[in-house]
Write a structure and sequence with these properties.
By secondary structure, the protein is α+β, with helices and mostly antiparallel strands. The chain is 20% helix and 41% strand. Among the domains are: 81 residues, no CATH class; 72 residues. The longest helix has 15 residues.
Length: 324
């Protein structure tokens, strides 16, 4: 399949290995309904000790590195990689990854998301819907131990890079991922809705976006209250940015486990209160007040099989003033 590839020098290149020496300007219009140009950074390094390959040029496409011994060979190989990525007459929009499994490309075509899995085709209208169905299928086959092992990555066509999930908004049947941007400090979020330009946000804007999405779901009568939309799969480095605009309330939810107690500090951000469940990937439960969090969190912990009885969850001040 023909793809027009042009070589562009990087005027900022100063000889360091951490910056691209060239860019490949790739016209992706062959497989897309509108003109899209992708810029791929070409990195270079010497290759001492090899009998024939004295240097290596490489690009990364959809999370995979493509290496060649000279720039000309790399330019010729890129169209083959682009062709192999195509499916359903387009480029992938997302990728699913999971331990010990090959990445699964997810395409958007004919008004829906589509992918090939287990020899068949699966489709849906929202990425959360597709994520849950694929996760259930892998769980049923015992390929993964929990749905959280199935991760969603956004493929931006402008650079063909994969952006992992930074956090997800979860409420009812809705699961909306936000993706981690390329900023070195992890402070950038990508909010992508199909058919709408990608929004680039700072982690401190995550709470305002949650309220915006919750209001949209309320208007559509898809959510009972704005506090039914929580956050999960929050990366620790993303929480660091969110914590900067969160104020501790002095309250803490806690419940007993075998030989210890689990504590969930309560914060306030933009007028909303939330309890933080600090895990490998954090989870945030929202409510209108610290006290109103108790029944909400108890219900959710019960659904997650982490709490055997709602009466085990209590709220207290850090100074020891207990409030049930």
């Amino acid at each position: 399949m023909p793809f027009n590839i042009q070589i562009r020098h990087n005027p900022e290149y100063r000889g360091g290995s951490g910056e691209p020496r060239y860019f490949l300007q790739a016209d992706l219009s062959t497989l897309l309904p509108r003109p899209v140009t992708s810029w791929l950074g070409v990195f270079w390094r010497p290759n001492p000790g090899h009998p024939s390959l004295k240097e290596v040029y490489w690009v990364e496409v959809a999370g995979k590195r493509l290496e060649k011994g000279n720039l000309s060979a790399l330019v010729k190989a890129v169209p083959q990689v682009l062709t192999s990525m195509g499916g359903f007459n387009t480029f992938p929009y997302y990728y699913f990854t999971y331990p010990q499994g090959d990445p699964l490309p997810v395409f958007h075509g004919e008004g829906k998301l589509r992918l090939k899995v287990n020899g068949g085709e699966l489709s849906g209208y929202e990425i959360g819907e597709v994520w849950q169905r694929v996760g259930d299928g892998l769980l049923g086959k015992k390929v993964i131990n929990s749905r959280e092992e199935l991760e969603v990555h956004l493929l931006l066509w402008q650079d063909l890079s994969l952006y992992p999930t930074a956090l997800a908004l979860k409420g009812g049947k809705h699961w909306v991922p936000l993706f981690q941007g390329a900023s070195p400090d992890g402070g950038e979020l990508l909010y992508d809705v199909i058919g709408v330009p990608t929004r680039f946000l700072h982690t401190r804007d995550a709470f305002a976006l949650r309220r915006e999405v919750a209001q949209s779901l309320l208007t559509a009568r898809s959510l009972p209250t704005p506090y039914d939309l929580g956050m999960e799969a929050v990366l620790p480095q993303v929480w660091q940015g969110m914590e900067q605009v969160s104020s501790p309330t002095g309250f803490c939810l806690n419940y007993p486990t075998e030989g210890s107690r689990v504590e969930m500090p309560v914060y306030e951000a933009g007028g909303d209160f939330f309890a933080l469940a600090a895990q490998r990937k954090h989870k945030l439960y929202f409510g209108a007040s610290p006290e109103e969090l108790v029944p909400r969190v108890a219900l959710e912990l019960g659904r997650e099989r982490r709490l055997s009885s709602s009466t085990l969850l209590s709220i207290e001040r850090h100074k020891g003033e207990k409030r049930d």
